[in-house]
């Protein structure tokens, strides 16, 4: 009898810990190993990052429904995890926020008509801007021209290794519902 009670109590503790870990993994944090060098020198191939997901739109594996736990908080220069639509998540830097006026001039990014100070990018990594063609089934706000105002609910995301990054210059402006989390810690090696 004592053994059965002890086993039941132990099982309850194990189940509680397991459920807590599942909750944290699904809704709070995710560990990601970086694949590729589009975020050099900040993140390298093989770097490990911890992504905080709580205040970001999430999808569950059993539903296409998107939900948010809390208020979204994104600042310029944050590193964010997002879903470009192909199921392979990317991490890029937030350059432009909703309402910002952006412009690409001679490989320089301007926000609200001022050059953006970007000490984190590789100097030789600049890639020329080219407009993103709009597909018939996409809303007009996805379109990225050489300059414009970022509409509500959209972000301009760029990789630090500009010459070798698949980002807003290729995808267009990124909708808020595609964001999945913010990098809060990374391990360099």
Would you mind describing this structure in some detail?
The strands form three sheets. Strands 1-2-13-5-6-11-12 form a seven-stranded antiparallel sheet. The chain contains two helices and 13 strands, in the order αβββββββββββαββ. It has a single domain (29-187), classed as Umud Fragment, subunit A, CATH 2.10.109.10. The chain is elongated and about 80 Å long. By secondary structure, it is an alpha+beta fold.
Tally the structural domains: 1
Radius of gyration (Å): 20 Å
- The tally of beta strands, per DSSP, is 13
Total helical segments:
2
Quickly give the CATH architecture.
Ribbon
Query: What is the topology, as strand order, of the major beta sheet?
Result: 1-2-13-5-6-11-12
Amino- and carboxy-terminal Cα gap: 53 Å
Helicity level, as a percent range?
A: 10-25%
**Assigned CATH superfamily:** Umud Fragment, subunit A
Biggest sheet layout: 7 strands, antiparallel
- Poorly predicted ranges: none
Which class in CATH terms? Answer: Mainly Beta
Quote the CATH topology: Umud Fragment, subunit A
Question: What is the H/E order?
Answer: HEEEEEEEEEEEHEE
Strand content: 25-35%
Tertiary shape: elongated
Give the structural class: alpha+beta
Summarize the structure.
The protein is of the alpha+beta class and 189 residues long. 16% of the residues lie in helices and 29% in strands.
List strands and helices in order, with pairings.
Elements lengths: L1 H27 E5 L14 E5 L5 E2 L6 E2 L11 E4 L7 E7 L4 E5 L2 E4 L2 E2 L31 E3 L4 E5 L9 H4 L2 E2 L3 E9 L2
Antiparallel strand pairs: 1-2, 2-13, 3-4, 5-6, 5-13, 6-11, 7-8, 7-10, 8-9, 11-12
């Amino acid at each position: 009898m004592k053994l059965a009670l002890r086993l039941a109590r132990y099982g309850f503790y194990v189940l509680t810990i397991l459920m807590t870990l599942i909750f944290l993994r699904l809704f709070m944090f995710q560990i990601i190993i970086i694949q590729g060098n589009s975020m050099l020198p900040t993140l390298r191939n093989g770097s490990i990052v911890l992504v905080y997901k709580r205040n970001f739109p999430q999808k569950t594996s059993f539903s296409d429904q998107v939900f948010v736990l809390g208020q979204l908080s994104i600042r310029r220069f944050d590193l964010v995890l997002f879903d470009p639509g192909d199921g392979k998540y990317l991490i890029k830097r937030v350059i432009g926020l909703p309402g910002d006026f952006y412009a690409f001039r001679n490989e320089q990014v301007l926000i609200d008509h001022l050059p953006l100070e970007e000490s984190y990018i590789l100097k030789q990594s600049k890639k020329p801007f080219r407009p993103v063609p709009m597909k018939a089934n996409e809303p007009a706000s996805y379109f990225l021209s050489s300059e414009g105002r970022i509409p509500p609910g959209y972000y301009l995301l760029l990789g630090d290794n500009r010459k070798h990054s698949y980002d807003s210059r290729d995808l267009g402006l990124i909708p808020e519902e595609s964001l999945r989390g913010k990098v809060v810690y990374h391990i360099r090696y």
